[in-house]
Write a structure and sequence with these properties.
Strand content: under 5%
Mean pLDDT: 86
Structural class: mainly alpha
Low-confidence stretches: 1-56, 324-337
Strand order of the largest sheet: 7-8-9
Shape: globular
Largest sheet: 3 strands, antiparallel
Distance between the termini: 75 Å
Amino acid sequence: MNGLGISQHLAPKLRRDWPSFYPLWVGMPPASSVNNSPVNNNPATAKRTPCMPPGAASPGPRPSRVSRWRALVLVGVHIAIAAHVMHWWLNGKTLSPLEPSEAMEFSKNSVINAGLLFFAISSLATLIFGRFFCGWACHLVALQDLCFWMLGRVGLRPRPMRARLLLLVPFAAFFYMFLFPTLYRWWYGQGFAEPHAELMTSGFWDTFPPWPIAVLTLVIAGFSIIYFLGAKGFCAYACPYGALYGALDRLAPGRIRVTDACKGCGHCTQACTSDVQVHAEVREFSMVVDAGCMKCLDCVSVCPEDALYFGFGKPSVLARRRPASRLRGALAWCKGVRWSSYSWREELALALLFAGTFVTFRGLYDSIPFLFSLAIAGIASFCFLQLARLGYAPRVRLQQFELKSGGQLTRAGRGFLGLGILGLLFTAHSAVVQHHRAAAESIYDELYPLITTWLSAPRPLTSREQALAQDSIEHIESLRTLAPLALFPREAWRVAMMDGWLHLLLDDDATFEAQLEKATGLIPAEAAAFNGLANFCAARGRVDEAAAWFERQTAAAPEDAEGWRLRASWLASDGREALALETLRRGTQVAEEPSSLWLELAKRSRDLGDEAAALPAFEEALTADSTNREARYLLGSYFYDLGRPEDCAREYERLILDTPGDTHLLLQTALVNMELGRWERARTHAQAASLASPAAPEPWVALSQIAQREGRMSAAEAHLARAKLLQEALDENRGPR
């Protein structure tokens, strides 16, 4: 025996008298395991289960010595999270969230943030060590383990829901979050932005839900999903990161392995909270092959023979059943597939129920985020299927509750039936609300290009446009009748804004003003309603009222920089440039994120030729936000316009450190350095530009000019010839004009 796993000649020493290895292959378990039947841990009355060898009754595993250490590590993780939040709260700016979901910004906008780097590092670690990150560092695993422990303290030990099709949900969620945005951009030819780093942020909480949703997440993704779906219910049926980690785990050499000391007591499986059949997998493969194993090490700790250990060797994808000559010893991509509590017909029904409830609750009242809706869909689909089974199954259980026995509903079953019907009615109501909301928004989006120009260039509506606007208004009225919008101010704000603008298209000015004024009271921090009313009043010649609306907006939310910027823009368009500059200066003193206001002040001062005001404003914009790329680029350009190319090159080169792949910036920097006679620097930047955009001829023209000035005439001619070839290729691709 060595650290790389168990040798084949040791296989006969292991017990071979266990029941058939059903958990690793798709099929129905024994009847005692169906419908969440409880486990009997009383050694006096315990019966043999698949976790025990024949003729044995287990007294239960000993307490895990590792669990306390893991709990301390997870507490430390949460202390670090709290410190991160506190640093942002005290300083107004901090490292972007170390949350894998932040990696979506790279798929959408090519942004490299701390979340992406964290996701990449944890994925690489999983590829080597397996899913240690999930078991020892994930805050949601900590939440689920805490809820599972608390339920155990009151005598509840939920058994897992075993479904096959729903195991695909995390993979679908991963595709939607991380791959679909990239495919969407490619399919519609939107192109890809140059990758750029945004490691620091002042909007730390922008991508997180408000506290009421966070509390609901604690309840739903904690206690509820644990009770109905099992100890790692969210991980198994909702977590998109777990999909990637699980796939990488199959390639990881680090695994739970076994020695020939194993006697098959099954304590490891009983201690596992990840629903892994540890005893059976190590018997068949000499290792745990299930990708759901999170390396909590509880199984290693509770083993009475100390037969389990974490070690390195062949990954599970290469594991073979023992003896290796069996035909079933194929590659292990399908190993660890869990048996199901449902028939295939029920599996299909479960999948359809999941899809339906997910679509129903996703974004409901503009409040339910994506991952939260996955958790709700998992619980709802399980409960609705159990509700349906009351109609045809002779016996139905829900954890410790007997819902139906001998074909008759029990008291618990009648209570569950009543609650289930209420749940169905609520889901149906939510589906109708979502239908009206989606229909109204779809029409509004179609009319939006017309809405954006309506105040500046109104025109008579076509009959189709009138019908669309009226149809959308009818959906909004139905939405107001059905939905408790008073409980959801953001949703009520959206509805009021849509309703107001649609009525304006129909020449109903009074309703427009009433709805947008209502919106200003719902969310004062949103500038759109104030801006809409101000522009409406200005278009109607009510200039004083327009100014009053902008004043009210900045008074209601002085911390909102956008409100100050819009107010200044309107004043400038009205010819009151001095008052616009004063408004921007006032805004910089009270706005939470004044960088954009300093930049606007700098641009307006520059356009007015006020160098004494423009340069300090640019510097203040960068002091407020050193990652403001636009401010640094415009400052460099302004230095060049002022005849200060050295300062221009300095700012451009600072910007290159943050965006090394920006072809235009690299080329501009090369040209400035050429003007300064810094030929080596110019050549470096021009070469980087040619690598960033291999099909662009401009970098090669610059390289040719640099080589010519350096006296390398043959290189200059070669670079110029390369530029001509690239230009000809571009002209051919464009085709005739």
